[in-house]
């Protein structure tokens, strides 16, 4: 079903864009074959590693497939827009119209160019995004405290060792107090990714580097990966918390497992367990890979939730659809019943669809501020 679903845009492009072109039949057939081959990128990923989430090809091949696959999807969307526009015009004018070949060429070139830009935006080392978040009950000593959020790194053949090293170097230069990684660090088995992820060993922050699992960790032996993260110097928070001390004051940093964990036999997210024992009126920062349960979380006294998972929607417009699957949350800062929720666009994204247009990746440096009503 997965591969059939991703074949539908290709079939639409062949039927509505390619076949009406004024080309020789042999040319149409040749292009149609190329389109079908490109549309089966995820099937080739399964052949390469046994998983659609781990393409084990050279980086330039993964980029090429993402460009071709992305161009097909964008072309399908643009063709649908043209078809709807033509149909509405026909209804208004009450006459039959045909789509000029020149318009099809413009649409085709636009899809190819946009896909190339989208891949370039996706694979770059992300720029720094500085935000300030005011949270309740923040001790005065934590005013101006800086947290770096990394999320959805999806370290893989696309986001490889050199990319990871560059992210680590830039992260270490930001002068933050604390680093948190909110899941989906990897795509691939430990044996395939060990060298690509090694640079994370060099992440440094005075108050530590903390990590929670995302849904992708459960695709590739979560237990082995979490143990490896510990060996790299990260501190896992799986339905647990720790106290962060700064200038004699303390706040709580808690983390939960991913909502998909029970599907692979691991504990479900348990917020009550994660925050058990935290004193009342203590500021709690929660790490939760997916933002969908934020409204429930807000009723438990959490001051700030940091999430990822959505990749910001990847493409402007598409983000509206992805919000529907994530409790209405997809990108940026939300006030949820007095709790602040930040949904990060992601440090990278899934190499199976590495396209960004209008929803850039980010290295997110968060400066904590005291909310006006804080005591």
TrEMBL record:
Source taxon at top rank: Bacteria
Pfam name, any one: Metallophos
Claim: Glycosyltransferase is one of the keywords in the record: no
PANTHER family, A to Z: TRANSMEMBRANE PROTEIN WITH METALLOPHOSPHOESTERASE DOMAIN, TRANSMEMBRANE PROTEIN WITH METALLOPHOSPHOESTERASE DOMAIN-RELATED
Organism for this UniProt entry: Pseudomonas congelans
Name of the protein described by the UniProt record: Metallophosphoesterase
Keywords: Membrane, Transmembrane, Transmembrane helix
InterPro entries (UniProt xref): Calcineurin-like_PHP, Metallo-depent_PP-like, Metallophosphoesterase_sf
Domain Calcineurin-like phosphoesterase: 146-312
One Gene Ontology term of the molecular function aspect: hydrolase activity
Residues passing through the membrane, by range: 21-44, 64-91, 103-123
